[in-house]
Design a protein that fits this description.
This protein is mostly helical. 64% of the residues lie in helices and 5% in strands. The longest helix has 26 residues. It is elongated.
Length: 129
């Protein structure tokens, strides 16, 4: 009996190391975090799925699938949802599990940049900000 369990564990460990599994896992986590953000925002506004659907010109079924992380979201629908709930870069950072840092050069806010990936020298500079 222990040999069967050991084999299953070895197979599972091998699957988890595969790139296909890791990509699938990342995708499912993004969908799940998006679902949670949409659900929480909708509940905070005290809206039904039907009301949100009407506001973004969609259907209750689509909202249900979104909140259950059971659909791939198109960019147009995502933009409508973000606009409706006034989601910002912090929301995006939570959904995509990224740390977003803003900084500006000089006094002109138009020169601001957003970065999610940094070189080692940039990371050292940011630590001291």
């Amino acid at each position: 009996m222990k040999n069967i369990s050991r084999k299953k564990i070895d197979v599972l460990a091998k699957i988890q190391k595969s790139k296909k599994f890791q990509e699938s896992y990342k995708d499912s986590m993004v969908k799940t975090r998006l679902a949670v953000e949409i659900y929480n925002a909708r509940k905070q506004m005290e809206w039904s799925q039907q009301k949100l659907a009407k506001k973004i010109n969609s259907t209750q079924k689509v909202i249900s699938k979104l909140e259950n992380a059971d659909v791939n979201v198109g960019i147009e629908l995502l933009r409508k949802i973000f606009d409706e709930f006034n989601f910002n870069s912090d929301t995006l950072a939570r959904i995509f599990n990224r740390h977003v840092v803003f900084w500006s050069f000089g006094s002109n806010p138009k020169n601001s940049e957003t970065k999610t990936e940094f070189s080692k020298s940039e990371e050292n500079k940011i630590k001291y900000l």
